[in-house]
Amino acid sequence: MALKILPVFGRDKEKEVVKLFLKHVEIVEKMALPLQETVDATFKDKNFNLVAEKSKEIWVLERNADIVRKKTATLLYEGAFLPMMRSRLYDFSGRIDDVADTIQDAVNIFHYLKGKKIPINLFKSLHKLGETASKSARLIKPCLQAMFDNKKEEFDKLVGKIKATESEADRYKRELFETILFDKKMDPITVQILMWIGKELSGISDGAKRVSDTMVLLRVMNVA
What percentage of the chain has pLDDT greater than the value 70? Predict the structure, then answer.
């Protein structure tokens, strides 16, 4: 079997779009490490200078992701792929970029915790949320590569991992919210910031799952 979305007959625009998709998810993969380092710097080391450095690093990567998306959109508008597939791929590019945006949004919140008192019993849930978010970001690239290489078994396995990680993130977010809402010692601003962080971190895993769902749809539509 072969995927029709793969470039055929030497069409340069289609080949370039495929390269850009792989570059796009590679950027998301690169964002996973500074994301995890931000979580560790906040809750383990309380090193907010490092948090600021990682925020700048993420900003550069997210800007690069935007550039790649614009290049992809330009090629699609210029006629790469057939019209129906073109619109699907444009939406797919948007979903990948949503993950990059959510990572940046999450990292940008952490500096608001400087000087805040955070109960130790919240650290586990927050750290686990950071781990699942980073893991989700790292799984997208190999999943897309498996789809392009038509490695069905590997692709299905990676899709399953992304779904399982998203479920883990939901569980940790629920645990975090339940703990926060029943803690009467935290001030309202700290509660709001922590819930905001929990929402964004779990949103990264949600976004990765939406990307994988789109990959499944593309594969089903285009395997012949």
Answer: 95
Q: How far is C-alpha 16 from the geometric centre of its chain's CA atoms?
A: 23
State how far the alpha carbon of 104 is from the alpha carbons of 57, 81, 82, 217, in Å: 10, 31, 33, 27
The dihedral over CA atoms of 148, 149, 150, 152, expressed in degrees to the nearest 10, equals -100
User: What percentage of the chain's residues is helix, strand, coil (to nearest 5)?
Assistant: 85, 0, 15
Rounded to the nearest 10 degrees, the angle between the axes of helix 48-77 and helix 83-109 is: 170
DSSP for 57-99, please give it: HHHHHHHHHHHHHHHHHHHHHTT-S-HHHHHHHHHHHHHHHHH
Domains with residue ranges and CATH for the chain: 12-222 (1.20.58.220)
Which range has the worst mean pLDDT, 13-22, 60-69, 77-86, 108-117?
A: 77-86
How is residue 112 annotated by DSSP? G
Residue 6 is classified by DSSP as S
pTM for the model: 0.93
Instruction: Name the least confident of 47-56, 61-70, 81-90, 167-176.
Output: 81-90
Query: Do 18 and 147 form a contact (C-beta atoms < 8 A)?
Result: no
Tell me, rounded to whole angstroms, the distance of Cα 23 from its chain centroid. 14
